[in-house]
Amino acid sequence: MLRAKLMVALAVVVLPCGCADDGGGGALPPEITTQPLDETVDEGQSVTFTVVAAGSGTLSYQWQRSDDGSSWSDIASATAADYTIASASMADDGAEFACVVTNAGGSTTSDVAVLTVNDISPPTPGGAGVLTVTPTTVSLSVSWEAGADNVSQVSALSYRLYYSLTNPIATAEDVLAHGTPVGDWQQGMLSAPITGLASGTQHYVNVLIRDELLNHAAYASSASRTIADVVEVGGVRMWSDGSCAATARGYLEPPPGYEYSGSTGDGVYRLQIGALQRDYYCDMTTDGGGWIMVSVFRSDARYQDFILARNDAAYGSGQTDPDSATSWSDWYVLSCLSWPVELAVIVDQVPFQTGWQAYNSKVIYRVKSRDIMPHCTLGADLVSGDNLYYKFNPALAWTDVGSASSSDADLYYPRDSANQYLAAFHSYVDPGGVTGVYFGVGIPGGNNSWYHGAHLLVR
Predict the structure, then answer these.
(1) Which residues are CB-contacts of 355 (< 8 A; sequence separation ≥ 6)?
(2) Residue 25's pLDDT is what?
(3) CB 3.0–4.6 Å: which of 19, 200, 424, 449 could bond 241 by disulfide?
(4) CATH 2.60.40.10, the chain: domain bounds
């Protein structure tokens, strides 16, 4: 009697691992001998849950999943003792798994195993990673669009700005290894300035985005340059990036990326003449500026020695000095000018002063092409069409030269509309060939006399 009671008790034991059902035929439900364990994997890794059960007859398995801890559903095709997720995603983080093992005696449900998935995916930069960079001469203002993440809220994402002078910092690894950070990580930051930079210098700029688990990614690196302004080096002005404009007006009206600021004003500027760089005194004041001094022609100078404007050449010494005691000329820059050009002949102004609008003893010619410029040994047609115009003040309208104007191998004689002489040149007046400039009565204050000095400027 005692044995019979013991056998009955064994038949109704419910195992702690789940529920048991005697199946009604005397067979016992399966016994789970090894429970599935909690698992932790990185996102993208595979994970396997395993159950080991014992029991009579054929054992069948059905794995179940719950995403909320209360509602369970069968996993399709998960009917083996092992269940594998080939690539765990963040959607699997926190999911619960259990296995129902069944035989003829009933079914037993395993313990619950919890899956933890570590987020290792970096956030995604916004706006396809494109940075917007606005330069000044001393700073770069950088802005970007907010990124996104598969776990962190957009508002929880942090950003940090970096720059480098030499390394492109294109990847997150390069940014961290070679970039100079600007400030600290800041949530929600979508713009920041880089200040205290040198003008005309290139910098590589990038931004890192970071989620709450410290996964990070880089935006697209941008090579950006601060705006170049004018600097003075050894008494010569040029762009701060080391380049030069081709003309004085090229400094006053610079292309994008350049700004006429810094060491501006009248003085010596370096100009890019084709492959050459040459220095010229530039008047940046008179009538809006942009005048380039091409000759200081003293009263004892000879036409044939200095006024050779159709040659890419320089004559004499003292170039760049508007108050040189000796005569000089430098005609290289004419090859860079857009024609027609203005040629100002300022007579007897010593010392030279900019702002010469109100100075009377001058004439400004409008020269259609370089072959109309004064050039000893070569004549020019001064009267046809619009070859040569003149005026006495920048504010005045142009007037065609008089019909008696003439030029040949020895002389350059423009006349006003009444055929009175203006500023003229000639090879030989006295036996020594010394002429200076002719100061014609057509110019205010002129007296039809030789042996005058002049400054010649073009723009």
Answers:
(1) 285, 286
(2) 55
(3) 200
(4) 2-118, 127-225
